[in-house]
Fold this sequence. Notes:
By secondary structure, this protein is of the alpha+beta class. The protein is built from 6 helices and 20 strands. The strands form 6 sheets. The chain has a 5-stranded mixed β-sheet with strand order 11-10-12-14-13, with helices on one face. Strands 2, 4, 5 and 6 form a 4-stranded antiparallel β-sheet that branches.
Amino acid sequence: xxxxxxxxxxxxxxxxxxxxxxxxxxxxxxxxxxxxxxxxxxxxxxxxxxxxxxxxxxxxxxxxxxxxxxxxxxxxxxxxxxxxxxxxxxxxxxxxxxxxxxxxxxxxxxxxxxxxxxxxxxxxxxxxxxxxxxxxxxxxxxxxxxxxxxxxxxxxxxxxxxxxxxxxxxxxxxxxxxxxxxxxxxxxxxxxxxxxxxxxxxxxxxxxxxxxxxxxxxxxxxxxxxxxxxxxxxxxxxxxxxxxxxxxxxxxxxxxxxxxxxxxxxxxxxxxxxxxxxxxxxxxxxxxxxxxxxxxxxxxxxxxxxxxxxxxxxxxxxxxxxxxxxxxxxxxxxxxxxxxxxxxxxxxxxxxx
Length: 353
């Protein structure tokens, strides 16, 4: 079941039971008077009273709700509120309970929120990001934009107070880290609309240490979606912000010695096992990006169980999953729940020091 994308937000849960008898058509009105439908855990509703009575429709017992706007009855369990519920935990697994005197039965349901709508409580605002300007300082519009539901609820599940949502006008990046002013150590992280679970998967490169050297795994890649895509992008950008604060990025500290022009301090690269004389220690990837990729895989693994709390449409709990596991390692066109390698780089101590 999915809440509406409108404001006020509505949710309708079918709540019906069938009555059977051998050889005759029963009159269920006497049972209807004693029957109650309800939802556990309860769902808040501003101006409706869900399940205030039950009526008989032939062999069906049907829940009815009182619509406060019309003072009339509507069928099934009907909920309406100005905004979607405030907490991610308000969604997910519920029970529609049917009770007649001391007889109780129930049906399991799942409730989702529309990922790309913006009808959550209005506590978060994003910005209109025009581009990344000179010296990597982001140029943003004074116009604020509504954050989509996926960003609002994912940020509750995976805390991201340092991240701002942006509707990107140019560039097409999933995420971006910008200095607040040229040469500043202070940064701002942006996550774009492309991180929405409805915008597909994100490929995450994998790396191993072979004879002390970092190497790209060329026959395997990790594909993430839903909340794991959110985690990957947030943690990737947090690495860029962290390196700026540490003063090992030349954009944030002009005193950095950067022989290979990859923006990273030579001594820091040596500490990380990178080549300070080659901007692409691993072929095809600038070292500045490589460091962020190395960290994000370990963060995704640490957040593996968060798929259980992804209640967005297009998210990891919604509909028929693309695979029987929360993310997929792909090799030779086939997908597997785990990597073929047991020595993938999952920690980069030089970043944390």
